[in-house]
Design a protein that fits this description.
This protein is α/β, with parallel strands linked by helices and about 375 residues long. The protein has 14 helices and twelve strands. The protein has helices at about 40-45, 55-80, 120-125, 135-140, 150-155, 195-205, 215-220, 225-230, 245-250, 250-255, 265-285, 300-310, 330-340, 350; strands spanning about 1-10, 15-20, 25-35, 90-105, 110-115, 130, 165-170, 170-180, 190-195, 290-295, 315, 360-365. Strands 1, 2, 3, 4, 5, 6 and 12 form a seven-stranded mixed beta sheet that branches. The protein is globular, with a radius of gyration of 20 Å.
Length: about 375
């Protein structure tokens, strides 16, 4: 079964596209990242975790549906993969708000999440059934709706001899811990804290550039120990999972904590915050283990050097398992979409805190409905496909 996965992460860099064949193995066929037009990117920022006009949100929802559809079409054209060879799309969309922990609200306890990028637009423009809105079913069952990628991590990295820690260095850093010989219920995963979201925003704000390429500016700076200690005192870092984080904690307000520092020192301190919180989370799990990283932060050479030093071991990447480092999350939502049409549960309650397993996502069908088959796609609880 050939499935496309689409996602834009918390850093708002652009739309990640992955086209994969799902059979006995998970085989990437084509991957790409399509940047947002800068004006659109600014508009998304303007409605993310803030007071916003409902009309702006509604228009962006439709616009991002158009952009996600076009990103897939452009990826197919550039990679020579026929669009009509794709049987299904899984689109996570763009998160503009996520509050995984319930809050009192008019007499109810409410946890909520909001992704935009209208799936009906994607299905109509491509002619391909599209699964979206993956987080809400888990939250309805009492979970935090995140993280959702650990099911793919389990499928890819479970090993009879070695503990594996799958590390994602996206806007937020998160880990999936897979003990040797693990069953699905043995898997643990959670967001460790900030990563590229803070680093990239500091680079844009202080250096007027999209990111700190290779961590070269952070390497020049000095870590401000007093600020680092203050940041590390956040109780979030001591919590055990399930827990999740996002722009609500590490957005524009968080950047003001670095305002008294030079650009280089701010980046050095923010880098060290990511290193210490990721390494601290991994060190909680005793024993020999492989650390396998993916996400945009893998391109930050200084960050990976510091992380390897703090861990006392090399940091591997998903590329060694045939998974492009920039495409793992997009591949995950292709995988979750296939599970949806197969009516297979795809959250991990031990990870999200849900009361029970649920089928994630909602299906938007084009007209006429493109035919697809899931007869050969069967997932067992042992993680075999």
């Amino acid at each position: 079964m050939r499935v496309a996965g689409l996602i834009s992460g918390t850093s708002l860099d652009g739309i990640d596209v992955a086209i994969v064949d799902l059979d006995e193995a998970i085989k990437p066929v084509a991957c790409a990242t399509i940047p947002y037009p800068e004006a659109v990117r600014r508009e998304i920022f303007s409605v993310t975790d803030t007071v916003a006009h409902t009309g702006t949100v509604s228009r962006l929802n439709v616009l991002l549906g158009e952009l996600f559809a076009q990103a897939l079409i452009d990826t197919c054209n550039s990679s020579k993969v026929p669009l009509d060879s794709i049987q299904l799309i899984g689109s996570h969309g763009q998160t503009i708000f996520h509050e995984g922990q319930p809050r009192p609200y008019f007499g109810f306890s409410v946890a909520s999440t909001f992704q935009i990028g209208e799936a009906n637009i994607i299905a109509e423009r491509t002619g391909i059934p599209t699964v979206s809105d993956f987080r809400r079913a888990d939250m309805a069952a009492g979970g935090q709706g995140a993280p959702l990628v650990p099911l793919l991590d389990f499928r890819l990295f479970c090993d009879p001899q070695r503990m594996r820690v799958a590390l994602n260095l996206g806007g937020i850093a998160n880990i999936t811990v897979i003990p040797a010989r693990a069953k699905l219920e043995d898997v643990l995963a959670f967001d460790t804290g900030p990563s590229n979201m803070v680093l990239d925003n500091l680079a844009r704000q202080r250096l007027r550039q999209p990111c700190d390429t290779n961590g070269s500016e952070a390497r020049k700076g000095a870590v401000n120990i007093s600020l680092l200690d203050e940041l590390l005192a956040d109780p979030y870092f001591k919590l055990t999972g399930p827990k999740s984080a996002g722009r609500e904690q590490y957005g524009e307000d968080f950047l003001t904590r670095f305002s008294e520092l030079s650009a280089q020192d701010a980046l050095a301190t923010a880098t060290e915050l990511t290193v210490r919180t990721v390494a601290g989370a991994i060190h909680r799990f005793s024993g020999d283990k492989d650390v396998i990283a993916a996400g945009g932060g893998v391109h930050n050479i200084y960050l990976l050097e510091r992380l390897a030093a703090e861990l006392g071991q090399p940091v591997l990447t998903t590329a060694s398992w045939g998974i492009p480092i920039d495409a793992k999350e997009a591949i995950a939502f292709a995988y979750l979409a296939a599970l949806n049409v197969n009516r297979s549960a795809s959250n991990i309650p031990s990870v999200t805190g849900a009361h029970n397993a649920v089928v994630l996502g909602k299906l938007a069908n084009p007209f006429p409905n493109k035919r697809f088959s899931t007869q050969r796609f069967v997932v067992s609880h042992k993680g075999t496909v």
